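ugh ok fine here u go
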Amino acid sequence: MSNLFVSFRYWIHGFFFCCSVVILVISSTLASHFLPQHQGLLILSIVASALTIFILFLLNGGPQPQFELSAILLLSWLWLGLGAYTGDYIGDTQCYLLTGTISASGKDYSNKGFCQQIKVINAFSWALFAVMSAYWVLVYFIVGFVETRIPYIWEGNIDDVYFPDEERAVYPAGIRGPGRLGGGAYPAGNVVQTGPNSQGVYPLPGHQVVVATDGSGQQQITQVPIGFS
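structure:
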């Protein structure tokens, strides 16, 4: 059975991506007509949408949960700022009542069309802020739950996170590990046996088991994050 949290995460990222592309296209089109007029609003719109798309590509590689939440929090603040800026900029103007044109790069541009596009940027900005904030809270509490089963999950891979009711499906019962607050289910594989009479040691997700012998001949077992050994 697939991990539903991973699928949910990619769908949410897809929503962020689509909204950002819409805003990037609109703001780039307006910038090509109006710059240097309205430059503060248009540049902020382009930067926010382009930065969101770039960060989403970075998050696509399965980052640590703490990095994902930090990035989403930063982006949500950025979209909050853009939503407030565009709201203050356009106010409660009723776009459908506007008539006439404004000069843009030597050409006439519809007042109504300009107003409607700023309204779209404003609406998508608030939508991104709201969904990012809800996503941040949800993931924070889910990772906190998983941490009671998988220690150090904050430094692990976010693809190891799962919804609470998925535990038996994602990590089959019978393979247990010493969770920080009690037993937790761990995946099988790469079991390290330190002696003929010793118990197997199961590596944590994203870790590998390192066995070393000290000066007295005692074996020391350490869980080391992959890439830091």
